[in-house]
Amino acid sequence: MKLSTTENNGIVEIQSPVYPEMTNTLNAYLGLINVWDDESINSTKQVRMLGLGDHGNVIREIRINAKWDTIFTNVEKCLESLRDISAIKQVLIVQNEPNKDIYPGPREKTLARKIWSQAKYLGVPLMDQLVVSENSYYSYKENEVVGDE
Q1: Neighbour tally for 144: CB within 10 Å
Q2: Any residues with CB less than 8 A from the CB of 83 and at least 6 apart, and which?
Q3: In the sheet where 4-8 sits, what is the strand order?
Q4: Which of 87, 75, 88, 85 is nearest to 121 (CA)?
Q5: Which of 25, 76, 130, 134 is most exposed, with the fewest beta carbons within 10 Å of its own?
Q6: Gap between the Cα atoms of 30 and 7, Å rounded
Q7: Would you say residue 147 lies in a domain?
Q8: CA 141, CA 127: separation in Å to the nearest integer?
Q9: Letter string b/e over residues 94-106, b meaning 16 or more CB atoms within 10 A of that residue's CB
Q10: Distance between terminal CA atoms of the chain?
Q11: 29 and 19 in contact (C-beta within 8 Å)?
Q12: For residue 87, is it within any domain?
């Protein structure tokens, strides 16, 4: 099956990507690991935003290949894009960590809070925000860095 994709300034949007249902953080991680390219998860830092439907089915995937200082601007644009798709009920934000250090520092935690605040402002419900490596994951929500207030 050929996927419909568009690319613009390091942002790739994929319609109807092939993922298993993502109903909780653990099964989202397991699903991501099974479809993430082995080479890229270990070599190229990337942010993926998954627009999820009613049953955790992935409706739209957006991949952001950008420098750290432009990530927030790109995430904000992508949140706005996903908000406009009525079938999307929540969004999962995932970034891989090629160096396998999945634990965020103060700068990353601040950015995560800023992203959650912006999503709330835009009316985009977030399921979670994950940092993944091939062997583990870190959930900002499970670790109470971000969440519903």
Answers
A1: 8
A2: 122, 123, 124
A3: 4-8, 11-15, 58-64, 47-52, 90-96, 126-132, 137-139
A4: 75
A5: 134
A6: 26
A7: no
A8: 8
A9: bbbbeeeebebee
A10: 41
A11: no
A12: yes
Looking at the structure of the chain, the number of domains it has is 1
Rounded Cα–Cα distance for residues 17 and 96 (Å): 18
CB 93 within 8 A of CB 126: yes
Beta carbons of 129 and 100 less than 8 angstroms apart: no
Domain that holds residue 120: 4-139
Question: CA-to-CA distance for 147 and 142, rounded, in angstroms?
Answer: 8
User: What does the pLDDT look like over 6-21, one tens digit per residue?
Assistant: 656 666 666 656 777 8
Q: What is the pLDDT of residues 55-104, one digit of tens each?
A: 888 888 888 876 666 777 888 888 988 988 888 999 999 988 887 889 99
Q: What are phi and psi of 126, to 5 degrees?
A: -100, 135
Query: Is residue 81 in some structural domain?
Result: yes
Q: How far apart are CA 86 and CA 100, in angstroms?
A: 35
Question: The tokens of 114 are what?
Answer: 């800023």
Phi, psi (5° rounding) for residue 2? -85, 130
Cβ neighbours of 140 (radius 10 Å): 23
- Domain of 75, CATH number, reads 3.40.140.10
